[in-house]
UniProtKB/TrEMBL annotation:
Lineage: Bacteria, Bacillati, Bacillota, Clostridia, Lachnospirales
Species of the source: Dorea phocaeensis
Protein name per Swiss-Prot or TrEMBL: Stage 0 sporulation protein A homolog
SMART domains found in the cross-reference section: REC, Trans_reg_C
PROSITE patterns: OMPR_PHOB, RESPONSE_REGULATORY
Function: May play the central regulatory role in sporulation. It may be an element of the effector pathway responsible for the activation of sporulation genes in response to nutritional stress. Spo0A may act in concert with spo0H (a sigma factor) to control the expression of some genes that are critical to the sporulation process.
GO biological process annotation, one example: regulation of DNA-templated transcription
Entries under Gene3D superfamilies matching the protein: 3.40.50.2300, 6.10.250.690, Winged helix-like DNA-binding domain superfamily/Winged helix DNA-binding domain
OmpR/PhoB-type domain: residues covered: 124-229
DNA-binding region in chain numbering: 124-229
Length: 229
């Protein structure tokens, strides 16, 4: 959602975002901007400071009273105190005009990534794929047996921290090929420091543990591309 009163700048921002395949909405009634955010639940708000009849600071404060949606100030005000005030009001980033389009897109992507990671941390401590359940709280992988196998009895095996993180990332991308580089970068973001060889060792160990509970071929390999479930 874009909150910008200069038509030319607003059009430039919206076109840039649409070209980057984002869905964009514009706010025209600035006094009701916070209410529109609450009603439409955008994934991110780009917010100018100098708006007719109301300050961007006030809009951000109102948004924060009812939502944790990421807010990025995009403004011509370059004073460091303005930036500090913006962050204290609850903004996630502060970008000054004129902006470089690639930099703006990179900063938006970074904020959205942090926001998505925070949401995932609040999700259920278990995640499933077929009859396989990953228990994030216990650090276990389990297979749920069918009714013909002793009435939904569950078999499980413990995982190391590295194994749990690897499986969690794969479970979050079912049906997608996850590259080795993406896995390693994700693990580094999670404060798990491994290299390419260590990743291979962990994948082998995970497959061995899956076999212990009767799960075969859950993790597939696409040669030269990565892994998938």
């Amino acid at each position: 959602m874009v909150v910008e009163d200069e038509p030319a700048i607003c059009q430039e921002i919206c076109q840039l975002l649409r070209n980057a395949l984002y869905q964009v909405q514009e706010v025209e009634t600035f006094s009701n901007a916070a209410e529109e955010v609450a009603e439409k639940s955008p994934d991110l708000v780009l917010l100018d400071l100098n708006l007719p009849g109301i300050s961007g600071y006030d809009i951000c404060s109102r948004i924060r009273q009812q939502s944790e949606v990421p807010v990025i100030f995009l403004t011509s005000r370059t004073d460091s105190m303005d930036e500090l005030t913006g962050m204290l009001k609850g903004a996630d980033d502060y970008i000054t005009k004129p902006f470089q389009p690639p930099i703006l897109l990179a900063r938006i992507a970074a904020v959205l990534k942090r926001s998505a990671k925070g949401q995932k941390e609040q999700e259920s401590p278990t995640i499933g794929y077929g009859d396989v359940i990953l228990d994030l709280a216990r650090g276990e992988i389990a297979r749920k047996r069918g009714e013909s196998e002793a009435g939904q009895k569950v078999e499980c095996v413990e995982l190391t921290k590295n194994e749990l993180k690897i499986l969690h990332y794969l479970f979050l991308h079912p049906g997608q090929i996850v590259s080795r580089i993406d896995l390693i970068e994700y693990l580094w973001d999670q404060q798990v420091f491994i290299d390419d060889n260590t990743l291979s060792v962990n994948i082998t160990r995970i497959r061995g543990k899956l076999k212990e509970i009767g799960v075969y071929d859950l993790i597939g390999t696409k040669r030269g591309m990565g892994y998938y479930i």
